[in-house]
Design goal:
alpha/beta; Spermidine Synthase, Chain: A, domain 2; 2 domains; 9 helices; EC 2.5.1.16
């Protein structure tokens, strides 16, 4: 291999015999926080990339595919969301999208690792500048503990988490979803990162095994992100009142500007799963 050829390799799936390799030009910053290793690299095809413990968190080229879908789907369903909680989301992309909705008055961000936000501000300011908005308040706390002390407070909770390994594993447990149910107002919605239906069927099945017992409405939807495992990443949609299709507010969706992925057609089609995956949520 030419000494100028430097590649990173996605580590999350490597033990299962599958990986993603991306050619990079240099490492821009690498630190070890109290919780994890965080690295930012410059790539040939995807721009800057953030990795946490060797796993790709985001790239400049395709971050919008994820952030637009995790934020706008619940915000275009809830009728009057004013207070939103983001658990994780230290890069700022989800908050950037939430702030495009004029009805939102407060955004609380619960990010356990302040180093993620610090690095994002240095290398991804077009995402992390969202934290400077006066509507946004940051809590450097454990999200699992945070929701236990805020009852009946939020219209929407968005869990923008890493994969269910290490300290993030608790965010995929029944107890966490039960605590979030109590943290929501009577018509609240929870959306969480929920892995790929191509690679992680057992995780999705285990989630919906208990989610459907807690929330009156529970659905799975997905988006396409080339640099995530299998190119597909899904979300749970858990609601006390609103159905993601029957209560979809097209007027709110049409008001949004500066989008690259989400629109009213994508909103509806994202819940239409391939035949082989339709049974994972039952």
């Amino acid at each position: 291999m030419n000494h100028k050829d430097i590649w990173i390799e996605e580590k999350y799936e490597i033990e299962k015999g599958r990986t993603l390799k991306i050619k990079i030009t240099k490492s821009l910053e690498k630190i070890k926080s109290e919780f994890q290793e965080i690295e930012v690299v410059e790539s040939v095809s995807f721009g800057k990339i953030m990795l946490i413990d060797g796993v790709i968190m985001l790239t400049e080229a395709d971050e919008f595919c994820y952030h637009e879908m995790i934020a706008h789907v619940p915000l275009c369903v809830h009728k009057k969301a004013q207070k939103v909680l983001v658990i994780g989301g230290g890069d700022g992309g989800t908050v950037r999208e939430i702030l495009k909705h004029d009805n939102v008055k407060e955004v609380d961000v619960c990010e356990i690792d302040r180093k993620v936000i610090e690095i994002s501000k240095r290398h991804f300011p077009y995402l992390a500048n969202s934290f400077d908005d006066p509507k946004v308040k940051i809590y450097y706390e454990d999200g699992n503990e945070f929701v236990k002390t805020h009852k009946n407070e939020y219209d929407i909770i968005i869990v923008d988490s890493s994969d269910p390994i290490g300290f993030a594993e608790v965010l995929f447990r029944r107890e966490f979803f039960e605590a979030m149910f109590q943290t929501l107002k009577d018509d609240g919605i929870v959306v969480t990162q929920a892995e790929s239906f191509f690679y992680h069927s057992e995780i999705i099945k285990s989630l919906f095994f208990f989610v459907r017992d807690i929330y009156p409405i529970s659905e799975y939807y997905y988006t396409l992100v080339p640099t995530y495992p299998s190119g597909v990443i899904g979300f749970t949609f858990c609601s006390k009142k609103y159905h993601p299709i029957n209560n979809f507010n097209e007027t709110e969706a049409l008001k949004l500007n500066d989008l690259k992925y989400y629109d009213k057609g994508i909103h509806k089609s994202a819940f239409n799963l391939p035949f082989f995956a339709q049974g994972y949520k039952y």
